[in-house]
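Hello,

Our lab assistant flagged a job as stuck in the queue for most of the afternoon. It eventually completed. Since we weren't sure the result was trustworthy after the delay, we are filing this so someone can double-check. Below is the sequence as submitted and the structure that was eventually returned. Let us know if re-running is recommended.
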Amino acid sequence: MNKDNLKKAIFHIKHNVKKKNFDMRNYREAEDDHSPVCKSYGCIIGHCTVLDNPENLPRGETEEIYFLDWSYQFFGLSEYEPKHTLIWQFMFNTTWAYNNNTSSKKQAVKRMKYVLKHGTYPNEFFKSKFFKSGTNCKNFNLVM
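-- returned structure --
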């Protein structure tokens, strides 16, 4: 895990992203997936590409950003590598969008700070109904 880049992301989301432009459902709107700067609503990953050199952004044939690949490069975490999957899901999973308590920018920053401090996710997270149901995160509200 790249802790320096995680610190940059925490600062960026907390201080530079407006609450109304933060949404954990998508990286970004489809029309806004080419620019390093998020000009629409977006999640942590969608907003943080601006923190990297534009030449480092992995792109497809039509120059769209491959956000998942980029998150691996930038944060050193992959949703598809077994040792990273649960940490990645704890910070970046779209399921957070389906609960007002946990989808907020404030809660996203708390989740990233937790991982930065502890190097992992809280054990109780994957025992909660949120993880078991995949869509209900009402029973997991990180208090820090």
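-- support follow-up --
The delay was a queue issue, not a problem with the job. The result is valid. The radius of gyration is 14 Å. Residues 131-139 have pLDDT under 50 and may be disordered.
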